[in-house]
User: What shape does this take?
Amino acid sequence: MQRLVRPARKLRGTIALPGDKSISHRAAIFNAISGGEAVVQGFQRSADCLATLRCLRSLGVHWRWLDETTLSIRGRGRYGLSESDRVLDCRNSGTSIRLLAGLLAPQPFFSVLTGDRSLLSRPMARVIQPLRLMDADISGRQGDTRAPLAINGRPLKGIRNRSPVASAQVKSALTLAALYAHGETVIEEPAVSRDHTERMLQAMGADLDFGDGQVRVRPLTRDLQPLSLRVPGDISAAAAWLVLAACHPDADLRIQGVGVNPTRSGVLDALRLMGADITLEEQRTWGPEPVADISVRSSRLRGAVIEGDLVPRAIDELPLIALAACFASGETVIRDAAELRVKESDRISSTARELRRLGADIEEFPDGLRIRPVRRLQGAAVSTHGDHRLAIMLALAGVLASGETVIRNAGVVAVSYPWFWRDLDLLSGRRAAAAKG
Ligand code: S3P
Assistant: This one.
């Protein structure tokens, strides 16, 4: 599917987002091993989260849709999963494969996890190695560095592990394995990554403490309590509208119910550092997660240095920040972000390459980007590299550019934001109906 994007004269409206992707995956997986039934409202019904749900169904878990985005899921208890008679296909989803690897390592049966071409090229040693230290029998292609992963489930022991990368997927895989291990597990990370797993498992009664880059997990002695919750709006989806509005000369948008967990909301800090006119209102909590409504207006942006601890808190939003930097005064440098090279695409090179086609002045480093402002982009044909975050960033670039931009393989937005194109049309006044919400 190809999409043609044109500039928008003005951007107005109120928008409700898809539920957070990370929280949706976790709500499904953790409730699947709980001791009862849960109802999850605002579940992100995207390709990635559906991959998790299909894997769970193959493992014997019953779930059904109560409406478009409300999921009912029946927990099987901590020992209730059953061996799948097929390979578990995680498609494009790193969160599915890494979290399920941790969950399946201690189950008393055999599992194979696989995915699409992008997922098969992503690093898996980061979960295989520490799980093996816990005594897991897990192996993978290319010398145990890539999926497919084969797991012969067996009893595990608790360990103390210091991960070389700040990765919530690794931390969550080890946390899940630790729930079934013999003895305590301590997981340390070099910088704090998103803590949705810790918050949710604690709310479900797991014996776990966390803070200061460390998680301590004691094995389950009884089933987790089911957790019904309303999933906050995905801040990664919100970031698209924040960047678009901040860079556009005539914009005023309000985004409702956005998850603003501080381990995840680095994009707000980065955009504020760049001078974006962003206001948080109605701060509240939905289950274990903080939520706010966010207003954003056309802004005079300035360049900034994005580095250090801010990077893991804004990791998925860095391509959007690179786009914003094209419209700032002064240069922006993003560094300490080598992890971007092993996402759904190599996001350092794909961001640089595609923004350059639109006239951006952007230079690649091994661990980041330098962007010099050009203030004006020009429409061109661009490629998404099969990466949902690139597709969304490039669509916004097209709205901000002069002329027409053609986005090839535009359907890939469904990986995290199935109704993105509709929302873009609504906010830019190309559809008659009022924006959702
Ligand atoms: C995620 C963690 C991050 C992020 C990904 C989702 C999660 O990956 O990039 O989109 O749900 O735990 P890493 O944990 O690999 O940094």
In short: The domain at 21-230 is CATH 3.65.10.10 (UDP-n-acetylglucosamine1-carboxyvinyl-transferase; Chain). Confidence is low (pLDDT under 50) at residues 433-437. The pocket of shikimate-3-phosphate is lined by residues 22, 94-95, 167-169, 172, 193-194, 315-316, 339 (CB under 6 Å). The longest strand covers residues 277-286.
